[in-house]
Specification:
The complex is a heterodimer.
Chain A lengths: L5 E6 L8 H14 L3 E6 L21 H4 L2 H4 L4 E5 H7 L11 E3 L1 H10 L2 E4 L1
Parallel strand pairs in A: 1-2, 1-5, 2-3, 3-4
Chain B lengths: L1 E5 L4 H8 L6 E4 L25 E5 H6 L10 E4 L1 H10 L2 E5 L1
The chains are: A alpha/beta, B alpha/beta.
Amino acid sequence: MTTEISYLFISRCSPYAGQQARAALDLAFTAAAFEQKVSVVFIGDGVLQLLDRQDTEASQLKNIGKMIPALKHYDVKNVYIHQPSLTRAGLKQTELPKEFELVDDEKLCKLVAITDQVMVF
Amino acid sequence: MILHTVNKKHDCLQTCISVLGENDAILLIEDGVYATMAVNNGIDVWENIPASTRLFALENDLVARGISDKILPRFESITLSQFVSLTCEYDKVISWG
């Protein structure tokens, strides 16, 4: 018998400022592999992880941009983008993956309230 | 003549700008390069920087972050070896952040 727990990973750091962005994605993949109910929200500088055309070959960093599309293959179905953060970063929704849902503060509050485990990176 | 390098978003850039001298230049590296984008946190930090101040950003860091096509025209994108040349060209280097 397995118990399903819902997780919400709040990813709030830019892709290469430290290990935070990478850690959030790794954990989301892991939890999903164990068939848990996983949601991820990109907020604040975290929305910068969603930019396509990240090319880390010269800087020898792990490409975060390439990990984002993998979320859906790992069965992480609920991926959200915090809309006010997009505006603050000067990004348009058209520049970002279309399959992710935009959320406002109110929706995010609800997500936090209904999820069993919320972790911030 | 000072070369100021900034490697983080926001705060340290503001501090750097507040002490900027007449012939100084700013080089954005690592997460500092996000400040090259046209809209950054809804604030145009470059508005009050004189046109004579040279502004640089490290190409590798722009490319890694996928923003090389979003930078303001004022910025000159430079390679690592140009970075080395700049450090020789200027009297000293101040690393912010």
